[in-house]
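Run log, item B.
One chain of 211 residues. Sequence copied directly from the ordering sheet:
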Amino acid sequence: MVESSPNPSTHVADSLTYSTRILLYAGLITIPWSLTWTTLAALFAPNYNWIAQQQSVMSLQPGITHILFNISAIGVGVAFLCFAIGLWIESGRRIAFGAICWLLFGLSMISNGIWSMGSPMHGAYGIGFVTFIAPALCLVEVRRFRNSKLLYWVTIIASFAGIFYFWLIVFGLDPIQYQGITQRFFGTINALWPTVFAYLILKQKTSTLND
């Protein structure tokens, strides 16, 4: 009798502890959390133009708008911190530079919800730009899904989109009348890598349960 060999995907999926998987699932939260709370904040912001104005403008608004924006920024930041910790554990490395990049980005998002626009601490002196290199570093450092075509293309798109958006800002090519849209568009692309990685973890877990 020939014994069936164990499913390698099952072995890989089972190598994740419950706590690490939960931390990685935080990557699924970032985009819907941000869009939901900033949309609510915009509804209470007088004369706010979501097409032309960036989200951080709402940090200058009083009352409920300011509170809702802070909830958005801090919540997203905490989600990125959780994802980064899970990714660091998953990498198995003493120093995981990709995870550190997402960790710094999470801290910069939290600072957005603590300090208002105009303060150098809003965005933690622009430290969030480390996300330009975060996807590529993570793809190298984390073995899981390294051969995934989906994650490969998301890595390319997220990295180049971030650099392109930064280029638009530096050279004043980001159209003033559409800066609200461009920030949301490129910000969503920026958060795609954690989202897709978390989705693949969830999909892998589901397929394991069905085996």
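Observations after the first pass:
- Residues 15-204 form one domain.
- The chain has nine helices and no strands.
Flagged for discussion on Thursday.
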